[in-house]
Amino acid sequence: MTKKERFQFVIDYFEHHAPNAETELIYDNPYQLLVAVILSAQCTDKRVNMTTPAIFARYPNVEALSHATFDELFPLIKSISYPNNKTRHLIGMANMVMEDFHGEIPATVPELVKLPGVGRKTANVITSVVYQQPNMAVDTHVFRVSARLGLTTNAKTPLQTEQQLLKYIPEEKVHVAHHWLILHGRYICVARNPKCGECGLRPVCKYYRTLVKPGA
């Protein structure tokens, strides 16, 4: 099977089984999504969704957040991983958006990565989810699933994974393919003891063929 054929099988599978896959973070606008994604680093979406309502109630927009102090914001996110850094990142992000972007959340990756707490993955999430730009955010799930399936070959970094995926996924499907891979990694192709018996991608999965099936 060629890599192109493998990608087509995976795309066809997800288009049939998860055509409307989307982020599990709860948000109403770009500001809320940016806050949620910054908080989600090394933290579950479930925990973030439990935390953000209080933040958005007190700071309903980026201007309000720009006036927050550390001591005011920290108690609202102390249950999140790395709360000290994320508190500073959120306040710094809000201030930069107000000062450098006229209060509007940037819509491009080069602009977004200038913001405190925003790396390439976060910027790709924002531009993909909000604006459906063909940007592939690579987190641990995407990295793991792509390698196991054989969609990537010897990719050592998230950027290498991103570049290899973008080479074969049609541009108009990139924004949803991001969610396909994340959700598959979150619920089926988990890091430990992947649920291969439930996975419809077994016919093309290199991990299953080389590590699981021989000993089955």
TrEMBL record:
Cofactors named for this entry: [4Fe-4S] cluster
Domain (HhH-GPD): residue spans on this chain: 39-187
Cofactor remark: Binds 1 [4Fe-4S] cluster.
Keyword set includes 4Fe-4S: yes
GO molecular function: endonuclease activity
EC id: 4.2.99.18
Swiss-Prot/TrEMBL catalytic activity: 2'-deoxyribonucleotide-(2'-deoxyribose 5'-phosphate)-2'-deoxyribonucleotide-DNA = a 3'-end 2'-deoxyribonucleotide-(2,3-dehydro-2,3-deoxyribose 5'-phosphate)-DNA + a 5'-end 5'-phospho-2'-deoxyribonucleoside-DNA + H(+)
Role according to the record: DNA repair enzyme that has both DNA N-glycosylase activity and AP-lyase activity. The DNA N-glycosylase activity releases various damaged pyrimidines from DNA by cleaving the N-glycosidic bond, leaving an AP (apurinic/apyrimidinic) site. The AP-lyase activity cleaves the phosphodiester bond 3' to the AP site by a beta-elimination, leaving a 3'-terminal unsaturated sugar and a product with a terminal 5'-phosphate.
PANTHER family listed in its UniProt record: A/G-SPECIFIC ADENINE GLYCOSYLASE/ENDONUCLEASE III, ENDONUCLEASE III
Protein name from the UniProt record: Endonuclease III
